[in-house]
Amino acid sequence: MKLVQTITVKPEGLPASTYVVLAGSQYDRQFKRVDYHAANGMVGLVKIGATSGGVTQVAYDKAIPAGSWGDAPESIVLFQAGPLGRMGWAIESSYMGQGYLEGGINIYVPFGNAVASVGGVLTVSNNEGACSAEDAKSQQCVLQAYEAYVTADVSRSEGLLYPLIANVKNEINGKVTRKRVEIPFSIASDRYMPPENMKESLN
Length: 203
Fold this sequence. Notes:
Layout: E1 2-9, E2 17-24, E3 41-51, E4 54-66, E5 76-80, E6 87-97, E7 100-111, E8 114-126, H1 133-137, E9 144-152, E10 164-172, E11 175-183, E12 185-186, E13 191-192
Antiparallel strand pairs: 1-2, 2-3, 3-4, 5-6, 6-7, 7-8, 8-9, 9-10, 10-11, 12-13
């Protein structure tokens, strides 16, 4: 694992914390690097805080499988996930196979001395590699493209984590629909709960 990111955050009225991202590749039992598409890399997420005795590791998960071709994903974003200075990471991932692309973000937040996975959101999906615009016009297939830009609604002070806001664009055979979707965090399930209808059906 190698160090790829360190960010120190000092919320107003609270001690500073440093958020660390580690990344590594996957190796087989012969210590050869794995390099096929479905092979994950590894990500480590660490929160470090200051105490009267110095610096201490507050929360961590050093073995999160993520990425492809045996490597960790390049896009790992630290963001304000909740009130009282609570931060989180959004790890982006995607997969393409047989002309279909799907990808999204998985969200991790420090709770206590651990880093917890609190759900994910689909951010991209299309079949442009399997269905061309010409084939769609001749009704040989249905061409779909879905995109969602996701942010945290930091204006909401209630709750453990801020709700997420997804600005969604769906396009099916050239017909575009747009909507704004709120994704709440469920304390009962400890996860974000995206609605099932974020992505329009092809049927």
